[in-house]
Specification:
By secondary structure, the protein is an alpha+beta fold. The chain folds into 2 domains: 55 residues; 117 residues, Rieske Iron-sulfur Protein. Helix content is 27%, strand content 23%. Strands 1, 2, 3, 4, 9, 10 and 11 form a 7-stranded antiparallel beta sheet that branches. The chain has a 4-stranded antiparallel beta sheet with strand order 5-6-7-8, with no helix packed on it. The chain is elongated. The protein starts with 13 loop residues before the first helix and ends with a strand. The protein binds FE2/S2 (inorganic) cluster.
Length: 192
């Protein structure tokens, strides 16, 4: 059996020469940009996935650990009535709880330290017997009634009572405004 003769490159017709061209180099040239394109899409997809996962994770963390504002307790004990001298304004809870405790002959009441003008904190001036606001000069009597400056109304009072152990119990979640007639509420004054 005789072998089919292989034509040399010079003896090929133009069509045969085109068909016989080696293809690997052409494929190489086509596949390099394709690979780059694939890799760039891969990185874009990966980055998108990572961003989406990160966002979802932060939502889960926010749900598990929400922002909580820790405020001082609204209810607290303030010692025994006999710890307070008649005729005095006690300032020991001013910074921590934002109140003054006033002891008069008939009993006790609790004033808010928030000025009713724009919310500054007045000072108790013992020598002058009044609360004076450093911001715009409002003045309040020991009772909390405003008498000078721009404050439009008296200081507010908070609920005061006696706890089971005989200590003074103050509840800042319940306030009383004089201009609404709420100082007549027995919870705004402790008779001792
Ligand atoms: S805030 Fe007190 S007088 Fe203005």
């Amino acid at each position: 059996m005789s072998e089919t003769p292989v034509p040399s490159q010079e003896n090929l017709t133009p069509t045969q020469a085109q068909v016989a061209k080696p293809a690997p180099q052409v494929l190489e040239e086509v596949s390099a940009p394709g690979r780059r394109k694939f890799l760039s899409w891969f990185f874009v997809a990966w980055a998108s996935f990572a961003a989406a996962t990160g966002g979802a994770l932060s939502l889960v963390l926010r749900f598990l650990f929400p922002n909580v504002l820790f405020e001082p307790k609204s209810e607290f004990k303030a010692g025994y009535p006999n710890d307070y001298e008649v005729g005095t304004v006690d300032t020991r809870f001013k910074d921590r709880f934002g109140v003054w405790i006033v002891r008069v002959a008939e009993g006790m009441y609790v004033l808010s330290t928030i000025c009713t003008h724009l919310g500054c904190t007045p000072n108790w001036l013992d020598a002058e017997g009044k609360f004076k606001c450093p911001c715009h000069g409002s003045g309040f009597y020991k009772s909390g009634i405003n008498f000078e400056g721009p404050a439009p109304r008296p200081l507010e009072r908070f609920k005061i009572s006696l706890a089971d152990d005989g200590q003074i119990l103050i509840d800042k979640s319940k306030k009383f405004q004089q201009e609404k007639g709420e100082w007549n509420n027995p919870e705004s004054f402790l008779t001792v």
